[in-house]
Amino acid sequence: MKDLRITVDSSDKMIALGEILSLELRPGDRLLLKGDLGAGKTTLVKGIARGLGFGGVVTSPTFTIMQVYLGRLPIYHLDFYRLDDRDLDGDEWEESYYGDGVTLIEWPRENVAPGDIIIEIEVMDLDYDSPRLVRLSVPADRERILEVLKKHADLEY
Amino acid sequence: MKEVRILGIETSCDETAVAVVENGHRVLANLVSSQIDVHRRFGGVVPEVASRKHIEVIASLVDGALKEAGMAAQEIDAVAVTYTPGLIGALLVGVSFAKAYAYGLGKPLIGVDHLEAHIYANFLTEEPPIFPAVCLVVSGGHTSLLYMRDHRCFEMLGQTRDDAAGEAFDKVARFLGLGYPGGPAVQKAAQSGTAGIYRLPRVYLERDDYEFSFSGLKTATINLWNKLKKNGEEAAVNDLAAEFQEALVDVLVEKTINAARRKEVEQILLAGGVAANARLRERITQEADKIGAAVRIPPPALCTDNAAMVACAGYYQYLEGDFAGLDLNAFPQLGLAVQKTCG
Q1: Which one, B2, B44, B164, B331, has the greatest CB density within 10 A?
Q2: What's the number of domains chain A is made of?
Q3: Beta bridge partners of B148
Q4: Which helix (H) or strand (E) holds A64?
Q5: What is the crossing angle of helices B278-290 and B237-262, to 10°?
Q6: Are A93 and A80 in contact (CB under 8 A)?
Q7: Residue A38 belongs to a domain
């Protein structure tokens, strides 16, 4: 796995980060989005969905568990907040993976499959008025994702 | 006139529900098999577990509802089922069952929109609402403000851009350690607290539209709590719960009242689980009174997910001859029926 840390100081920049990230996503990708309540996971998904050409409203899937947006690729937006650790063993976890599109999972389980892209959003000092520290971990063969993000001038590293 | 009896089936999320409603308002049976026990055991709504539980109980619930209604299956005039929006696997159980049941009986099938059904809970009475009306649907999964011009004729005025109101209640309740379900837990804490001691934002109130956003309020609540703790201050959870509830209710009430005033409606219809919130009921009734509008709120058992509301919505589709084919499919996303234009 290769890592990159990015500081994001506004929700607009979180959306921008998602848009840039989307440029490198392809069918079969699964992104695990970690972070406390209110960290900005859904905001990042808004950016990714917009970048993938979805023009509608992205809302929290906490109650619906899964939402599908049709962009350039289908976007599967899942949220396991209401689920318990025991719920998604084995098969059920494997089912949260869709080969024809991009799968974005908020509140994922700890099981990580080879190929998963992991994004952790940290609220610095637990102060929600402060910037977010975003850590991206990608498989070695997807290092290009980090290169593209590094190139983008609007984001500070 | 012959009585029309609709069998309603609802499996869009947590509850398996079956009801029989006569002429759109007389509830002959209304059974809900709550999965809350299962969810508590499993900690949530597991998509696969939820679907399996629906399958296990749906047939016996239909038998039970018919028995309670004192009817034979053949005496049903149509089968109405929620087909959108919801969890795909869960919806499919109800839709597949309804298709087979309607086909077996040789009766028409009706596909019902869950959001529309929530609003129709207000019609399960001998004195139905007066058109036009403004409807506020607030639940764990929805926060939508609609203008209802006539039967089955809705205009979506606004929705949440992020979290639904009920979701914000649940997440704040869990964060503050108040328990589950979040709505009643926050309400209970708030009753022993005072709003205004802490100050939370009324998100989107400055915007002159009907959009909602509750993610920012959730974050502000968590942030305030964290800061109080960090500064070593005595944090009063009941006062914070009261302020959170007040901030959320303020936005719901003001936007709904603005819509009612501008659309010049006589009635406001509340629907969804959050409509059971006492503070919301109290505030919206007070404010509606000032503009000469009346607020209608279904009894709590018809606010949360149930099938009587599905049968009721199905009745009005029956009257219009709006039937579904046996190719009816489940559709997980919000926004089919309620966006249709009116004839």
Answers
A1: B164
A2: 1
A3: B133, B154
A4: none
A5: 40
A6: no
A7: yes
